[in-house]
Amino acid sequence: MTLPVALSGHDIIGQAKTGTGKTLGFGIPALQRVVGQDDPGYEKLAVPGAPQALVIVPTRELAVQVANDLQTASRKRNARIATIYGGRAYEPQVEALKQGVEVVVGTPGRLIDLYKQKHLSLKNVKIVILDEADEMLDLGFLPDVETLIAATPAVRQTLLFSATMPGPVIAMARRYMTQPTHIRAADPEDEGLTKRDIRQLIYRAHSMDKIEVVARILQARGRGRTIIFTKTKRTAAKVAEELVDRGFAAAAIHGDLGQGAREQALRAFRNNKVDVLVATDVAARGIDVDDVTHVINYQCVEDEKIYLHRVGRTGRAGNKGTAVTFVDWDDMPRWGLINKALGLSVPEPVETYSSSPHLFEELDIPVGTKGRLPRDKRTLAGVDAEVLEDLGETGKKNSRSGGRTRERDGRDRDNRGREGRGGNREGGRTGGDTGRSGERRRRTADATESPAAAGETPAATETEQPSRTRRPRTRTRRRNGEVVAGEKAAQPGSTEA
To answer: Cα–Cα distance between 267 and 208 in angstroms, integer?
Structure first.
């Protein structure tokens, strides 16, 4: 539905469930509009070599996936495509822009950086594409997106795609689009907001038993590639490590990993070296693998939008999928709202443990399955079998080494802080007389080393001694101000005098 309208040059607001093939829906019109370096009219561009199509996406992984799809579609077109996103070194991206590109696919943060540094010119842009606009809103990228759009020519085509249409996204569309055509892609046989090819199972699980339940689900008959979603980066690393210890080929992908480690995990997942990927929401946006059979929400989602995006990682390209969601006891009120918004008809998830018979029956798990993968089934190579590229980034290579690095850096910062605080205290005591106090300390040290020096040296040492041991006087002042205590405090001074 999108192609005829987009090819005619109209602005489009496309609303579709995730996994419905939006990339080529905007990619083909973008490739059709650009003028290649060997095409007639290339030299007449305002800035020859500057991008003519700008694709903005919320995450690094999605940028890589979209760029790869466009590369495939542009084999018969004279179009150069650059991928611009954070986590990689600046220099290769700047060099690619200098050599000239027709299409730029990137994330808002790095695009803004290169635009402000004058490396990215937007004067040639004929078409702007915003993919996953609702996710960019959730991540706080809309101001950067608006800055980029405002820098493009006023006469352009704008395509906006989003699974949901919150208010700020609609407002941005009204501000930067001209009479857009609203296209909503839906299967008439789909009854709910999620695709009918996805079987959804909701369980109320105990936090201490979740990993046991997951270990059994991963041994279900017919289980292929699986994505496990977590709320936090720490949980993702912990779950992946636990599954590896139990014999599963698992890898984690989250924001604490460097870009090289994230891409290594994704390549291992796509190349079938691992079949379990534990991910946070943001990192998983670019995971576009058609044969993901199972999605597991390890923790209850925050709202229905996140639920749709997570569940949409399976059941893609006409395949069947299974989505399992764990709901804690404390999350029941939130789940009630999500269930009502999506019309899932599961207001009270059934209480489920790793030994529950219905778990084995509903997910086709062999009876007697334990929480560890048998050794004869451990056939995949694992994430370390995939090459870790050096991308010039400063992120961490893995969670364990990252933890040690953070710990060491923390100790260094604490030590520096103590030194700084100590210096401030000493500076406060000496005030502006720093030079004299330093000289006094040197004289005292010299006198201690050579007691047979000048006659006045021992006397000087004695007179300086009370100034260094005068702190205990506060103790005598607390005794009701008695004169006797004051005399005791004054005794050292009187003997010196």
So the answer is: 31
* Sign of CA pseudo-dihedral 256, 258, 259, 261: negative
Lowest mean pLDDT among 159-173, 276-290, 386-400: 386-400
Domain of residue 367, CATH code = 3.40.50.300
pLDDT for residue 184:
83
Overall domain count for the chain: 2
pLDDT tens, residue by residue, 1-18: 688 888 889 999 988 766
Whole-number pLDDT of residue 479 = 58
Q: Is the pLDDT of residue 20 over 70?
A: no
Q: Could you report the per-residue pLDDT of 363-392, keeping only the tens digit for each?
A: 999 999 999 999 999 999 999 998 887 776
Residue 112 belongs to domain spanning: 2-184
Establish if 452 belongs to a structural domain: no
Distance CA 210, CA 354 (A): 8
The whole-number average pLDDT for the span 184-194 is: 58
**Please, which residues bridge with residue 398 across strands?**
none
| Three-state SS letters, the chain | CHHHHHHCCCCEEEEECCCCCHHHHHHHHHHHHCCCCCCCCHHHCCCCCCCCEEEECCCHHHHHHHHHHHHHHCCCCCCCEEEECCCCCHHHHHHHHHHCCCEEEECHHHHHHHHHCCCCCCCCCCEEEECCHHHHHHCCCHHHHHHHHHCCCCCCEEEEEECCCCHHHHHHHHHHCCCCEEEEECCCCCCCCCCCCEEEEEEEECCCCHHHHHHHHCCCCCCCEEEEEECCHHHHHHHHHHHHHCCCCEEEECCCECHHHHHHHHHHHHCCCCCEEEEECCHHHHCCCCCEEEEEECCCCCCHHHHHHHHCCCCCCCCCEEEEEEECHHHHHHHHHHHHHHCCCCCCCEEECCCCHHHHHHCCCCCCCCCCCCHHHCCCCCHHHCCCCCCCCCCECCHHHHHHHHHHHHHHHHHHHHHHHHHHHHHHHHCCCHHHHHHHHHHHHHHHHCCCCCCHHHHHHHHHHHHHCCCCHHHHHCCCCCHHHHHHHHHHHHHHC
Give the domain-ending residue among 377, 409, 433.
377
Neighbours of 253 (CB within 10 A): 28
Q: Do 217 and 359 reside in the same domain of the chain?
A: yes
Residue 416 has pLDDT above 70, yes or no: no
Q: How far apart are CA 200 and CA 217, in angstroms?
A: 14
Rounded to the nearest 10 degrees, the angle between the axes of helix 332-342 and helix 304-311 is 70
- Closest among 169, 161, 129, 168 to 148, alpha carbons compared: 129
